Amino acid sequence: MSWLPRSRTARRRLMILGVTAPILALATGVALYAMRGSISFFYTPSQALAAHVPPGQAIQLGGLVRTGSVVKKADGEVDFVVADRRSSAPVAYRGVLPDLFREGQGVVAIGAYDGAGVFDARQILAKHDERYMPPELASALKKQGEWRGDGAAPTYSAP
């Protein structure tokens, strides 16, 4: 076998590598498989639309709460629209909203789309200003030209 190293130390290192590499690959695969249900991707409404996020897949949906869209129902459900410059998504949430939640402000909703295209949020995170905004949301809004760290009103109009 001419491809084997001549020195005994080099052959030993090659043998150790040959044994440990498959074990590490298997351990990585098992860890990723175990975490598959807890991984939550971040999307703005237009990114979620473009990615064709399937109903039931857990994601984080971030954008601005569209002014005039918040509807509080008698049964405790709150409906509102999360929007970015190009798209919007209806959101339904049942629970107590954060104190900082309000129209025109940034929000991250954690949950999944239902079969009708409504985002069913199980948790709502609101921001006070850009210092508290998740980096993913700030980056996505900057890319779309919708960065409003000064709290100005959105430049798009409601459809």
Describe this structure in words.
With 159 residues, the chain is α+β, with helices and mostly antiparallel strands. The protein contains three helices and seven strands; from the N terminus they run αβαββββββα. It has helices at residues 8-35, 45-51, 135-143; strands at residues 41-43, 59-65, 71-72, 77-83, 88-94, 106-113, 119-126. A five-stranded mixed beta barrel has the order 2-4-5-7-6. A hairpin with a 4-residue loop joins β3 and β4 (77-83). The model has no long low-confidence stretch (mean pLDDT 82).
Task: Write the SSE topology.
Layout lengths: L7 H28 L5 E3 L1 H7 L7 E7 L5 E2 L4 E7 L4 E7 L11 E8 L5 E8 L8 H9 L16
Parallel strand pairs: 1-2, 5-7
Antiparallel strand pairs: 2-4, 2-6, 3-4, 4-5, 6-7
Annotation keywords:
159 residues; alpha+beta; 28% helix; elongated
Roughly how much helix do the residues carry, as a percent range? 25-40%
The termini sit apart by 72 Å
Number of strands: 7
Give the overall form.
Answer: elongated
Query: How much β-strand is present in the residues?
Result: 25-35%
Main structural class? alpha+beta
Q: Radius of gyration in whole Å, from Cα? A: 23 Å
Main sheet makeup? 5 strands, mixed, barrel
Strand order of the largest sheet: 2-4-5-7-6
Mean pLDDT: 82
Low-pLDDT windows of residues:
none
**N-to-C series of helices and strands:** HEHEEEEEEH
Number of helices: 3
